[in-house]
Amino acid sequence: AHELVDPSYFNLSLVSKKFLEEEKMNLAKASLRRKQNHIEQFIKWTGNPDITKVSKMIMGEYINSIKMTRKPAYDTLRNIFADISYLF
Known about the structure:
This protein is an all-alpha fold and 88 residues long. It contains 4 helices and no strands. It is flat and about 35 Å long.
């Protein structure tokens, strides 16, 4: 998805929109909604930065914040991580 957008501007919401448009062809509706929800929550948490500014450290901080506030099951946390990671 990163390569499909204007190379001078790579904010997460723009990249995720292109990414989810492509994923729509390959995923069941429920899986697409779950992935979209996880990505949107991540974008909201990060403030929609340029995709080149998102690091492993930021992703780790996000996952830790989820663990501390929601205390999700391991599989839920794994799904959140995977859904967001596919964007990159």
